Amino acid sequence: KQEVTQIPAALSVPEGENLVLNCSFTDSAIYNLQWFRQDPGKGLTSLLLIQSSQREQTSGRLNASLDKSSGRSTLYIAASQPGDSATYLCAPTGTSGSRLTFGEGTQLTVNP
Amino acid sequence: DGGITQSPKYLFRKEGQNVTLSCEQNLNHDAMYWYRQDPGQGLRLIYYSQIVNDFQKGDIAEGYSVSREKKESFPLTVTSAQKNPTAFYLCASSIGTGISGANVLTFGAGSRLTVL
Fold first, then answer.
1. Mean per-residue pLDDT for A75-92?
2. Do A1 and A100 form a contact (C-beta atoms < 8 A)?
3. Which pLDDT belongs to residue B39?
């Protein structure tokens, strides 16, 4: 059974810092991995999807990398802003196709 | 605008009552999903459906039921058999499944169920 761990559980940084969120998973047999953002009391918004054959994906100030063999993914946020404050979740998709397994998330607070 | 609509946003239930949460999408997606989120825990899959008139149990299906009579609708019933139903429920959809690589999930805004 896939298990996903996200470190740190919570992070508070001053505005402008570059930061890294970590995601590790136990089963490397995945099709892809997604990073999501969740604002308090809201649904999830997909940020980036990395296919298993890819090493990284970029969208604006966000960059996600994937090392499938070691079961790790990182989300890099450049020049953080208060609007980036949210919970970030990673979710690999297993080779069964339909089953995403979510981590518990990293709660990020960016202070002005 | 295309998206997923969940209703109601907040719902209160007395013990022993069944309640149904609505999920409607106008994205023409084939696959739909129901997740449960508890404080301090990740999302857990309750049920999913890859096509109309077909659905499969997820990791925590006990005490829940679903139907998929129309492509755009995937209602979730929380039955009295669910022992700890208070949670935040999220519906999602995707074009297809992970096999096609096209399973970017679109989520609804969620429904918060509280049992009194």
1. 96
2. no
3. 84
Give chain A's end-to-end CA distance (angstroms, integer).
Answer: 41
Q: Which of A39, A102, A42, A38 is nearest to B108 (CA)?
A: A42
Which amino acid, one-letter code, is at B104?
V
What number of C-beta contacts closer than 8 Å exist between A and B?
Answer: 72
Q: Which amino acid is at A15?
A: E
Q: Which residues on chain A are in Cβ contact (under 8 Å) with B88?
A: 41
CA max distance for chain A: 43
- What are the tens digits of pLDDT across the range B36-94? 999 877 899 999 998 999 999 999 999 999 999 999 999 999 998 888 999 999 999 98
- Is A44 in Cβ contact with B92 (below 8 Å)? yes
**pLDDT tens digit sequence for A24-44:** 999 998 888 999 999 998 999
Give the nearest chain B residue to A93 (CA atoms). Answer: B98
Would the pLDDT of B98 be above 60?
Answer: no
Calculate how close chain B gets to A111, using CA atoms only, in Å: 22
Asked if residue A8 has a cis previous peptide bond (ω within 30° of 0), the answer is yes
* Residues B47 and B34 sit within 8 Å (Cβ to Cβ): yes
